[in-house]
Amino acid sequence: MRACNNNCIRCFIEEQSSLKESYPDIFIYYENKIPVFSCDTDVRRITQEMIDEELKRAPFAYIRSNGRIFYYRALAECVSRLQNVSVLLDFYSYNLNIHNDITKTRQGFEQMVRGINNLLAFNTSLLVNYHVGNFRRDLKELADLGVKDVRLAVSDYPDIQKAVPVIKEAVQYCDELGLNVTVDKYPRELGFLLGKVFVGPDQIAITVNNICNHKCIFCTDLSNVLIDDKNLHAFRNIKQCPNYGVLDLPRFKALIDDAAKIRVERIVITGGEPLIHSDIMEMLEYVKSKDMMATLLTNASLLNEEMSKKLVDMSLEILQVNLSAFDSPNYRIQHNISHANVLFPRIIKQLKILKEIKEKKNSPVPIVEIVFVMTRHLFGRFREMAELCSEVGASAAFFKPLQIMKSGLKQYLPTQKQVDEFHRNFQEYKAYFHKRGMRETLDELKFALETFSKTGEYYKSSYEEVPCSIAWKYAQISAQGEVSPCCTSTYGFMGNINEQELRDIWQGRRYKEFRWATQDKAFTRRRKECGICPNYLFDNLLFHNAIKMLELDKFIKRRDSEAKLRERVLA
């Protein structure tokens, strides 16, 4: 049983499934991979060495407390000396009787308030975990005490639907008081519904270089049909940054540290061709050392046996290989290279070697996913693609619609005859992959082709009903450090990691403006990139399905201020 000086009606510590007594009278559990120390008898037992051991895989740690122990200034001072630690203090009510009834104490309230004062006097990092009650009284009193950071305990509510209106009001009141506010559950879903940012993006795609050894016909950067197209420069804002760039290792590590602090869960490493980067393996290992999921997106042309062994040993989650071809002649066309007869068999050989290494080490990772960018050269060849994926041990095949510019790439769109054949044989194509035990995204491709055929743009009509959620869950960072809200946006950069911390960019004015704009039908109606976005079903609808599963979709509100939308947003 946990040693504690309270006897609360409900003990949130003992309910933790990961709770373990790692040291005598010191319990540790994890909240979203953040270590939480609990010791309400003598906090001096918690040493910097214990914390540093946990910080090998986390950006910071919490010491969770009811606050009473910090009634003693010496103990508050002791905690203030610990580095990379915040006190997570449970707070129920600023009413003495209510607080003491809940905690079943006689002097708990007075000691807790004195404890808060002592922690703040020593400039200790403090996050008050507020179990929402009379929030207009309680939050005002906390603000008057000097508290700056509050977390609303959404997990107290068995019915999340009933919680939303209350949480919304509490969040708005925190804004009025100047309190920094977050929530302990569903931070991205609630942030989207309330127009707030409680946590960092779920996923960040980092371009470690924009140098590539291929010039794929479908590439938005290096396709030979677009390289001199002025529309390309307008589309990707290339004039705003140098043609080539490499993200160095120290800057990359600092970025990953920043990402861990705001609870980014997945890192996608891409390029250019990331395997060209001399430090790519150390980069991936550093991501893994921070307990974040890692995906490497590559054409695999430089993959070798030594690299494959390292990828398996570091437990890289996903290796995503952009083949976009099913044989050497097809590869030559799609990747626009002359030595495809040599390179394509070599790539297949290396993927088979990776498969063998995984089998020898009895490792399920990295999961291999094969990407096919669907130009007209691939339609009708799904059997060959399925056989190839099976041959190299792939777990999934991703079929991505061709990303269309104003000119150039349209010549690679499938013909109407190919589209009709695809719809006619759709179930047969799916069966090719299912009988080989693979996942596929043919349903998404089917929907993309249907909406493109009707409107001339992928998915755009769907944005009328389902607003884009990308600005709450994703960010893309270039080799020059520029942060973009998505891979197709012409909206402009949100900031630069060489000039600001990632947290400041994510919570900054530019991002707030973009989030506000994406919830307006007039914005998505006018933005050309929304109509050519190939990732709508892969990301946006999955997020909305999660909201629907929580039965919170009724709280989604769309504006349609065509006449009122600010001109600078549309610029």
Describe the structure.
By secondary structure, the chain is of the alpha/beta class. About 40% of the residues lie in helices and about 15% in strands. The chain contains 24 helices and 18 strands. Strand 2 and strand 3 (about 35-40) form a beta hairpin. The longest helix has 21 residues, at about 340-360. The protein is globular. It starts with 19 loop residues before the first strand and ends with a helix.
Itemize the secondary structure elements and their pairings.
Layout: E1 20-23, E2 26-31, E3 34-38, H1 48-54, E4 61-65, H2 73-80, E5 85-91, H3 96-103, H4 108-121, E6 126-130, H5 135-145, E7 149-152, H6 160-177, E8 180-183, H7 187-194, E9 203-207, H8 230-236, H9 249-261, E10 266-270, H10 280-289, E11 293-298, H11 305-313, E12 318-322, H12 328-335, H13 340-360, E13 367-374, H14 382-391, E14 396-401, H15 416-424, H16 426-434, E15 439-440, H17 442-455, H18 470-473, E16 474-477, E17 482-484, E18 495-496, H19 502-506, H20 509-518, H21 521-526, H22 528-532, H23 536-549, H24 567-570
Parallel strand pairs: 3-4, 4-5, 5-6, 6-7, 7-8, 9-10, 9-16, 10-11, 11-12, 12-13, 13-14, 14-15
Antiparallel strand pairs: 1-2, 2-3, 16-17, 17-18
Helix pairs in contact: 5-6, 9-10, 11-13, 12-13
